[in-house]
Amino acid sequence: MPREWISGSVILFLLIACGQPLQDVKGVEVETQLLSDYNISRDYSNSNTLQKILDDINCSVSSVVHKKLVVADSFTPRDTSQILLVPFISNGHVFKSSAYADVTNRFILINLRYIREFATKNTLNDTTAFVPLVELMLLHEIGHFMLHAAGSFDNLDSGVSTLGQQENPSTTPEYLTTVKKIELSADSLAIDLIRKQLKSQHYECLNIAFDVERLLPGMQFQLSGTRMIEKFGARDVNFLHDPSNDHPNMELRVTFMNYFLFPSDAQKKMIDDYIYDRTVAPVHEQELDPKIFQGKTKNLPESTK
């Protein structure tokens, strides 16, 4: 993740340093400072929809994580059980993420416009998938609070052309590093919250669980189908590579989440094959690549001669 998203100012300390006691700091002031620090603007669209999502999120997870998502008008900085949610719009062609959680300073930034664009391209029904997708991303960010580790749902470089950039060749393995596993852990915690809710007796809090349960299978189908069409006939396995150094690609993540929610042997084999194709197959491909020095002789074990 870019450094500027990690090293944001400690908002409350700044406001207190300016002479305001903590009890006098308003949520709107904290939000205004955040928007200025990150060079983003407040998104005032979808306000009613967002409030309904927050009500459902809080109903579903508050008893587990003992936190509550609120917008600026309801945010009380001294209440450590509250997490400030700031819907934002990126200003210009700058780095953007659909959602980002700062655990230390207790806030989440969410880009609703980008999420709607993402739903259009990556779900079977973009008109009904928008709300479940927002819910899933917020559950992922709550997962970061449970892990006590800051992070974002995805990592995108908006508006920057990749033309002329060298793609990862099929001989380059793609590993799940420790940083990437943090994002997978946040995903799995989000699904664990859904599974707990599906088993609970609080029927009034099941909206999000049902939404995500309907979203993931179609999302996996759409992502894998799009990949097969776009890569039809291609020899390279560039689609297996990740978009950044700290986030696994979305197809793999959604497949993992689907498996956590609907475990099956078929899903497990799909994941195992996918991991093999990312990590082991490229190494074997190196043995056939004439551009990679193979050595004059190979000292094989006696049993293989």
Would you kindly provide a written description of the structure presented here, covering whatever features stand out?
A hairpin with a 4-residue loop joins strand 5 and strand 6. The chain is 50% helix and 10% strand. It has one domain. With 305 residues, the chain is α/β, with parallel strands linked by helices. Strands 1, 2, 3, 5, 6 and 7 form a six-stranded mixed β-sheet that branches. It has a two-stranded antiparallel ribbon with strand order 4-8.
Summarize the structure.
This protein is α/β, with parallel strands linked by helices and 305 residues long. The protein has one domain.
What's the topology here?
Blueprint: H1 3-6, H2 11-17, H3 27-37, E1 40-42, H4 47-65, E2 68-70, E3 82-90, E4 95-96, E5 99-102, E6 107-110, H5 112-122, H6 126-147, E7 151-152, E8 156-157, H7 178-199, H8 207-230, H9 250-261, H10 265-279, H11 281-286
Parallel strand pairs: 2-3, 3-6
Antiparallel strand pairs: 1-3, 4-8, 5-6, 5-7
